[in-house]
Amino acid sequence: MDQKRLDLQKSLMVCPSMLIYLTFMALPIALTVYYGFTNWNGVAPSWQFVGLKNYLRAFTDKQFLYSVRFTLVFSIVITLLSNALGLLFAVLVNGKQRSMNFFRSMIFIPLLISPIAAGFVWKALFSYSGIINQFLERWFGLEAIMFLGKPDMAKLILILFTLWQNIGFCMVIYLAGLQTIPPDFFDAAAIDGANPWQRFKSIIFPYLAPSTTSAVLVMFTSAMREYPRPLVLTAGGPVGQTETLAFRIFKVGFDANQLGYGSAMAAWVLLLTSLLSIAISRLLRRREEFLK
Predict the structure, then answer these.
(1) In sequence order, what are the beta bridge partners of 38?
(2) Which of 44, 50, 167, 203 is packed most tightly, with the most Cβ within 10 A?
């Protein structure tokens, strides 16, 4: 078989996956950028081009700018805590005892629950007439607390809810990474009299660099596009204080029928997330160089 025919066969094998990518990834992104230059309301059969009006409007939209700040802080907190706690649990349950399988399952199960379904459960717990307030009133005589009605408390509960579901993912990533570390390293450390912290600092943490890169990027990008949890738990409230970028874009584009402006905001978010993800990836991959 000549080289040209072989290259043609390889190209044909790639075509289906490329078609799927272009249809469901590249085309929607291109259309989002395109609609950002229009005043389309998402319903009308025609629309007008408005140039950069929508893209510039985002810089003067106070609620959008607040959503940017809130989402960035939310993403950083979720990324750091999810990875820190996921790594901690991975180290703790990284044993061959049968009981470890039980603890691994308990930590991982929340990830398998739909965020929508879990959100209704958390709302039932923390709403003004929810289970926790009923418990506090019945057993301690305390007045009901507006957990989801106070901005700071609503943000805290949203973060705890997200962490509860995300820690299991990070734990699995780090558990897989721990399995790749040669046991000889730990044997040598034991002979040298290294304590648990020294083993973690000198062996576990450095050799988990690839796992850290993967877990951090997945957590950060998923947090930047967080939508279902604030939708169900707080509906963006109180007073828009828990509106993430994805929630804000959906609210403007579909609830307010300003799809053109919503598309422009989505394009800015895509650009921001891409740039931050590239920067984080390059920074973290420097730690992997010693493994090569």
Answers:
(1) 49
(2) 167
